[in-house]
Amino acid sequence: MKRFIAAALALCALPLAAQQDAQKEIERYRQLLADGNPAELLEMRGEGLWKQKRGPKNVSLEQCDLGIGAGKIEGAYAQLPRYFADVDRVMDAESRIVHCQMSLQGFTREELTRRPYSLTQGERQTDHEALTAYVVGLSRGVKVALPQGHPKEKESYLRGEKMFFYKGGPYDFACSTCHGVDGQRIRLQDLPNFQKPDNAQRAFTTWPAYRVSQGAMRTMQWRLYDCFRQQRFPELAFLSQASVDLITYMGVKAQGGTMDSPAIKR
Hints:
The chain contains eleven helices and seven strands. Helices cover 47% and strands 8% of the residues. It starts with a helix and ends with a strand.
């Protein structure tokens, strides 16, 4: 951790050529960290929660349908968001996990969405984060293949595209301000251009991710929430239609990429 922070501070003071060399070293450090990714412990906890009988109905989540059949998890995340006929709408992975907890286990939406993210470094990660880590981990090595055959899936993509390019807030920012052009970076983080398939694939397939600087695994819903915060937009509601539509847009742009998540981020 200390080595990572030191590299970050040094990078900011270097000229461009040296920055590029330092960036390679930081990427190498991330690869070393990935061999012992702390998110693996959260995946294990998530597996235990998935199989544990819980809630008012005292049942497990083992019959949860993530879009490829009840009880089937492997590869499901790589095909989400998608349309679900039982709720007549498009849902992302996190929405569907919450839905299964409500429909199978009897939890209320209020108690499941009250605090989905851990807030401070060192704080125990939430059950939602653990369940998401487990589900996404079972799609490692699977190609991203979001379905776009249903009209509501296409509508979700188009709304997400419109939001991606919409400018607003005190700085007149849009998602595309950072992720619609080449060569952008914030601090140590290269900002992928989602208009290029390889960039979109690299970004989408590595979220959720373990954030070294925060000592926690962060989900895709959290990633969008934090982007809105940095743009000074109104707070993005957890599991909102807007969040699902944006994830749909990004996922479709990343079609064909290979899932490698939870990954390691700065």
